[in-house]
Amino acid sequence: MSNPTAAMIVIGDEILSGRTRDSNMHHLAGQLTEAGIDLEEVRMIGDKRGTIIAAVQAMSAAYDYVFTSGGIGPTHDDITADCIAAAFGVPIDVRDDARVVLAEHYAKSGTELNAARLRMARIPDGAELIDNPVSAAPGFKLENVHVMAGVPSVFTAMVASVLPTLTGGAPLISKTLRIERGEGDIAGPLGELAEAFPLLSMGSYPFQKDGKYGAHIVIRGNDTDQIDRALSQLEAAFS
Q1: C-alpha span between 204 and 221 (Å, rounded)
Q2: Are 99 and 41 in contact (CB under 8 A)?
Q3: Phi, psi of 133 (to 5 degrees)
Q4: Tell me, what DSSP letter sits at residue 163?
Q5: Contacts of 31 by beta carbon, 8 Å cutoff, 6+ apart
Q6: Does residue 231 surpass a pLDDT of 70?
Q7: Could you read off the pLDDT of 198-210 as tens digits, one per residue?
Q8: What H or E segment, with its residue span, contains residue 231?
Q9: HSE on the CB side for 27, CA within 13 Å?
Q10: pLDDT tens, residue by residue, 31-61
Q11: Exposure pattern of 181-209 as b/e (b: 16+ CB <10 Å)?
Q12: Helix 224-237 vs helix 183-196: crossing angle, to nearest 10
């Protein structure tokens, strides 16, 4: 039986402009791999309502799980929550349980829960809150879409909250063989090996060091025995 599938939508003009480097995809990919959930697509999009809605609708229909990061803060360009509501055709407003979480958090620091901060309590109807132990403002889950913050420390904490609720599969195993030959020499035997082991994923990642060419061959799959057999055959071909 195949593993559940997942996709991620990274939202923010600052990502596309190069001002901010995204690290959330890397973290999520590693966590999902360990959980046996195959991350199959990642889209990076700007803060544009139509683009966000279209991406959410398409990816929600295509994958078992969808994760978003970015655009759920207190400023005018934080429009993700509204777009998620629009994508599923449900109303959105300040919700009492989210308001309570924020009120308690800001009361502890003597900070006013003003209109801007209260925007972070706007949750689409029918959504479940995602805990945020770092800065309190919750994410939420609507249908199969998990909506989380873009700040890496908060995103990481939200992923930790979400993972126990997901149904995973067989964790992906990855092993690497270093071959000090150019990819032109490796390509033929590697292609034959890929045909012989169709359930495994094989990638070639070239390098150059001290004037010599080589490649790291990475073989991934759910069956350790098959991976070891494939590596042994490849190693024998270049011994």
Answers
A1: 15
A2: no
A3: -75, -5
A4: G
A5: 159, 163
A6: yes
A7: 999 999 999 998 8
A8: helix 224-237
A9: 20
A10: 999 999 999 999 999 999 999 999 999 999 9
A11: eeeeebeebbeebeeebeebebeeeeeee
A12: 140
The predicted model scores a pTM of 0.87
Of 239, 171, 182, the C-alpha closest to 214 is 182
Q: What is the 3-state secondary structure (H, E, C) of 103-162?
A: HHHHHHHCCCCCHHHHHHHEEECCCEEECCCCCCCCEEEECCEEEECCCHHHHHHHHHHH
Mean pLDDT over residues 101-117, rounded?
A: 94
Q: What is the DSSP string of 28-78?
A: HHHHHHHHT-EEEEEEEE-S-HHHHHHHHHHHHHH-SEEEEES--SSSTT-
Looking only at the bridges linking them, the beta strands covering 128-130 and 201-209 are unpaired
Both tokens of residue 105? 């958090």
CA-CA distance, 145 to 134, in Å (whole number)? 21
CA 235 distance to own-chain centroid: 33
Classified as helix, coil or strand, 99 is helix
Whole-angstrom distance between the N-terminal and C-terminal Cα of the chain?
36
